Amino acid sequence: MLVILEKVKELSLQWHMRGIPVRVFDANIVHLSGGTQDKTFYQIERNVVEKYRGFFPLISYTCGWVYTGRIQYLLLRLYRKARYKI
Questions:
Q1: Which of 31, 42, 49, 55 sits at a 20 to 30 Å CA gap from 72?
Q2: pLDDT tens digits along 13-37
Q3: Which tens digit of pLDDT belongs to each residue from 33-81?
Q4: What's 31-60 look like in SS3?
Q5: Residue 45: how many other CB atoms lie within 10 Å
Q6: CA–CA distance, 70 with 77 (Å, rounded to integer)
Q7: C-alpha to C-alpha distance for 62 and 60, rounded to whole angstroms
Q8: Using an 8 Å Cβ cutoff, are 74 and 31 in contact?
Q9: Which of 73, 66, 84, 54 is nearest to 9 (CA)?
């Protein structure tokens, strides 16, 4: 499921970069599985950040947001390692 959601999100980023209007609708999302933010989740997040770093200063998704700037992203990763021991 995580990979499918990631592909949809990445498509919207690519459309935005090409000038195609992208609309986001506010919705209450219920994750029946509870979800997991394990190493795979953070690896996919890191890949997206590195790919779109020069185009977007911030990327948001259903689990939160992430800065794409090198310093901000490094600080966020250090915080997560200390806080969540990942």
A1: 31
A2: 888 888 888 776 666 766 676 667 7
A3: 666 777 888 888 888 889 888 888 888 776 778 888 888 888 888 888 8
A4: CCCCCCCCHHHHHHHHHHHHHHCCCCCEEE
A5: 20
A6: 11
A7: 7
A8: no
A9: 66
List pLDDT tens digits, range 42-55: 888 888 889 888 88
Q: Is 64 exposed, middle or buried (0-12, 13-18, 19+ CB in 10 A)?
A: exposed
Q: Which amino acid is at 22?
A: V
CA 40 to centroid of chain Cα atoms? 12
